[in-house]
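Apologies for my clumsy wording, but can you show me some protein sequence, whichever is easiest, together with the matching structure tokens, please?
=====
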Amino acid sequence: MKRYLNNALPALIFLQGMALATAEQAPVSLQLVDLTPRFLEFHQRAADETDPERRFELWKAHYDFVALPPGLPDRDERARAMLDAAWDGYDKVLYRIRPGIAALSPAPEPVLAQVSALLEVDDQLPAITLLYYVGMLDGNAFFAPAPDGSGLVALPAEMEPERRELSMAHEFAHAVHHSLSGLAMGPEGSVAGLVISEGIAMHATRALFPERADHHHLGGSKEWQQRCNAKISVLLTELAGHLQDTGPESVNRLTMGQGLTGMEREAYCAGWHLVGRLLTQGMTLAELARLEDQEVTDLLAETISEWTSAADPARDDSFGQLLKGLEHSLEQAVSSGLTPGVAAAIVSADEVLWQTAKGHHPDEHDRPIGPETVFSVQSISKNYTAVAIMLAVQDGILDLDLPISNYIDGFRINTPFDESPADKISLRHLLSHTAGFTHEAPVGNNFNAESESFDAHVASIAETWLRFPVGSRYAYSNLGIDLAAYILQEAVGMPFEDFMYQRLLQPIGAEHSFVDTPDRNGRCRRCSAGHHSMFASLPDYIPLTASGGVRTSLSDAIGYVQFHLNRGRVGDQQLLAPDLLDEIYRPTRREQAFGDDTVFPAHFFHGMGSYTFEAADTYAVGHTGGGFGFTASMQWYPEYGISMIILFNAGTDPLQKLELGWDMLSRMVEGNMVQRQHRPDLPTREAFFRDAPFDNAADTARASIPGEPAQPQGRLATLSGIHQPLFGGGFALSSSATGCFECIRIEPLEDRVLIHRGLPEPETLIRHAAGLYFADRSGELLDLRGPLPVWRSVVYQPKD
């Protein structure tokens, strides 16, 4: 969390006499100050010190830098508490600190040059000082302005490199903005200045790193961004009366405190949305960065007034106003090139309240997207598969809780644990992602789609390894869903795709929908191809038949969500019993998932092939999907009988546009635009969430992996550096692609080897056997027995 210093250079008076390294990069010069040697001297002296009071005395004597405003009466007490909390964690990040500023990556000069170009700097600006310091393990990068237009950017040395590049660009944007505008920033500035400066910085990093998810640019979790989206209208209404407030109390309230609506970091939320709106209206970041104090206040007041009047639930046409905003956002997504096309709808149990289709097929601009265009819905397929399994349960063919060895003979999977997985894994484990499987199969996956059949894809599961003991934790996995579908087809004696069509798709009237096979796939007449900015070509056939192979149109998807809203009924036919539908939704785990880029929010749960989460005063159910050049979302509120569907034929930036659906439905509920249905067969929110277990922490995973930390010897020692997936089977990277898609970085240290994969912290590799290494928290496997490294069942190669 950012903490501003009142005045950068006086606050660092203790640095006088230190040599400054200066890098000239017109039109902005950069001075470099490295505090890591001072910290390392302190850490060495305090390494064996067990008395916290004595340790703090050493800190005061040899380091004495903390990201707190100068002049605080309780500065030492706060610094002592922060040091005590961080102390045990320093040993884990010393490998990042020791190299100092000389090894800083990315190099700051090119990043500053990119920010300067984005903000169209053409005159020489006051020098910026980059302070490389060791913080309190809170990721606290910050900018401190100076009266002469210069300023100091402070960057923690312990920060994860993937996070550092965004933080560096963000703080440089503050520094350049301050020099261009003369806007008062920091604790003495106005709320309006704070909001626009944060908005400019966040959208600057988004422009420079468009492949990163929006919540990374906002510096918060996915949960926080969802709350921000849901509360933005209320927040802006409250904010309108405080734009001219100044002083530390106002600034801290909107950055570190609980804000005007009880939500933390409200300045970032408001800045993201307001600057985003101004950009869509034609302004540029360079123009915004040159506005002076009163101009900023007036512009934000006008923008907030337009926003809140359009979103006011008390207006007669409140739903229509929301739709105008939604239509505009989707039009912007297409016209700006984020996606070639999109189809979306809002529906109730018995009617279509709104629908639209915009844009075109990726490579055929004369073929418009329509309601009958067929999209891949990717992981939403998991929900379709769960319903198909439940139909077989309803027929008495399958039982959710019997071991899978009752249905298939000879199933094998590698395991480092002392157990017979086939005698413990149930269909419930497979559908709820608690069987212990990894995410990808060696044959037919999200990086190489080469597979002659669904059966070949499933057979390759035998080559994978369990990540944790069966039933002990949640970890999202395509393999569990695909194995469940294979068990279904063995039990019913027909291919899974035929059962899906005969028992589910045909009865709900989904005449254009189907499950991918080698003979019927994305080459169908109505099918849109997928698009991804990183790839020159994408596969037509998706071998992840059950976990990602469903293709459907908007018209057919409407029928599918109405099947859910009508509690499993289609017309006069009760296709699936309501209690079995609820079994799909009911949480089996409150997710704190390992191996994903964020920890899921506390109110977010996983059922069987579905997400269930608390929203407004109720609960929402659904799923999202992304891959092979497509992105999709289906979400419904059972108690309110409404649903939204969004289908994109692009697989990168539109991921963030899925939140439009979540935001739209929550605002309809909160604005009293729909009424709660009082039906005795509808479970309450409390009934759904009362008993869901919580996957708690990585310590459980670390303790479960047998073995000792791998040593940087032999082949492991030669693999230092960045590796990217070896794409094939229809995937081909574009020659113009930038960034690194699903890359990993292997880092040998003196006594262990780390693997970085975009998480806040790297994982330590644990040696299991010759050439086999497990990551200590996620339980994922690195296999070095072949010519190329295999990570999570995917072949990797060194990145050039």
In short: Residues 1-182 form one domain.
